């Protein structure tokens, strides 16, 4: 069994190593052992490995990246009645999916609907569930209005999900990307939505013209950094800045006085809080994710797949500008088979 791990935070290429061992973990009561076949590289996985500036490392000891993946149930612990060995499942939150095997509570292993590919199943939970959380935050901030909402990194995997949801719900969305070529790609996919490239000197003027008299009601931002102050400046009085990612480097300054004088709201959204929803609410979100995987798999786009052992090349690809979709790490069935003694 192969496991990617790190013992201290730092540049991913330097701190991550591949460990091989003969024994695999065993599921306890209420748990299942999953032979992970495909797992994504999410930007958040890399933040976990590299840390954030000014934020001291909070954990010690060996850790394995990854919170999501898909695979096959290898064995079930006592009291597990809902899953059986051989069943295809997607798992989240499942810390340590960058390994050939992971143990998860049985209620966090979601059956993969028939007809959904392994690649789509590996992307079925984190981004669609994040979309659910973001959409709820947008609706709350809009208080019954239909926009305008301005989103950054519109060409990202999440950005494309937001665009598709906006079309479906008749939400007035303005898309921001950082390059002209990126703008062209988003425009081709969502021709009804304005797309503006922040490399244009006049990008803020263009946003104002598209937003019209009411002004931007909500900004959905996953870039952060120095642009955040400009984004807040585009909000109408009483508007809301929803921050959910930090793709840029550096700190995110926000001037207090304009926030106060214009009664702006700043809020964060994190998938890490999804588990605090009730079991019924989570089941509704998971049903949405399963439906999306079955009926709109093109929204869960794959950039490329690499063997788990090639994680360094895969990470370099995941960070490449102008990439479309998510980079996956795979385990061939034969590799996961080797080292088959339970610990
Ligand atoms: N809060 C949560 O719970 C949660 C959950 C999931 C994801 N996220 C966040 O959502 C964001 C998108 O994730 P994803 O998986 O959809 O990403 P992704 O598919 O890897 O796409 C990344 C996108 O970001 C753009 N980008 C990268 N650096 C940028 C910068 N400095 N300025 C402007 N644009 C930049 C890229 O544009 P180019 O095409 O121009 O290269 C690309 O379109 C990330 O910040 C991630 O951490 C948050």
From TrEMBL:
InterPro entries: ADH-like_C, ADH-like_N, ER, GroES-like_sf, NAD(P)-bd_dom_sf. The keyword Heme does not apply. Keywords: NADP, Oxidoreductase. This is Zinc-binding dehydrogenase. Residues 48-68 are annotated as: Disordered. PANTHER family: QUINONE OXIDOREDUCTASE PIG3-RELATED, ZN2+-BINDING DEHYDROGENASE. It comes from the Bacteria. SMART domains: PKS_ER. Residues 11-329 form the Enoyl reductase (ER) domain. SUPFAM superfamilies: GroES-like, NAD(P)-binding Rossmann-fold domains.
């Amino acid at each position: 069994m192969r496991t990617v791990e790190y013992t201290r935070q730092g540049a991913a290429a330097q701190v991550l190593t591949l460990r091989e061992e003969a024994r695999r973990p065993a599921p306890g009561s209420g748990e299942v052992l999953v032979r992970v076949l495909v797992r994504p590289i999410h930007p958040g996985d890399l933040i976990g490995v590299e840390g954030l500036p000014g934020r001291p490392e909070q954990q010690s000891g060996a850790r394995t990246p990854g919170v999501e993946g898909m695979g096959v149930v290898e064995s079930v612990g006592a009291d597990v009645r809902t899953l059986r060995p051989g069943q295809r499942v997607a798992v989240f939150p499942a810390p340590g999916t960058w390994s050939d095997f992971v143990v998860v509570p049985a209620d966090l292993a979601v059956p993969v609907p028939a007809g959904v590919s392994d690649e789509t199943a590996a992307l079925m939970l984190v981004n669609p569930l994040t979309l659910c959380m973001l959409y709820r935050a947008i609706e709350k901030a809009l208080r019954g209005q239909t926009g305008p909402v301005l989103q950054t990194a519109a060409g990202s995997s999440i950005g494309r999900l937001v665009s598709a949801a906006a079309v479906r719900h008749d939400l007035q969305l303005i898309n921001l990307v950082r390059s002209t070529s990126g703008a062209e790609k988003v425009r081709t996919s969502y021709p009804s939505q304005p797309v503006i490239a922040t490399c244009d000197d006049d990008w803020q003027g263009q946003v104002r013209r598209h937003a019209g008299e009411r002004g931007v009601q909500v900004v959905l931002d996953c870039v952060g950094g120095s642009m955040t102050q400009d984004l807040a400046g585009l909000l109408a009085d009483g508007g809301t800045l929803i921050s959910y990612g930090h793709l840029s480097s550096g700190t995110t300054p926000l001037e207090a006085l304009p926030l106060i004088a214009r009664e702006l709201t700043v809020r964060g959204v994190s998938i890490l809080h999804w588990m605090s929803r009730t079991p019924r609410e989570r089941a509704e979100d998971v049903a949405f994710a399963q439906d999306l995987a079955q009926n709109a798999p093109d929204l869960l786009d794959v950039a490329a797949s690499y063997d788990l052992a090639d994680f360094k090349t895969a990470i370099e690809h995941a960070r490449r500008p102008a990439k479309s979709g998510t980079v996956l790490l795979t385990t061939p069935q034969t590799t996961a088979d080797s080292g088959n003694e339970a610990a």
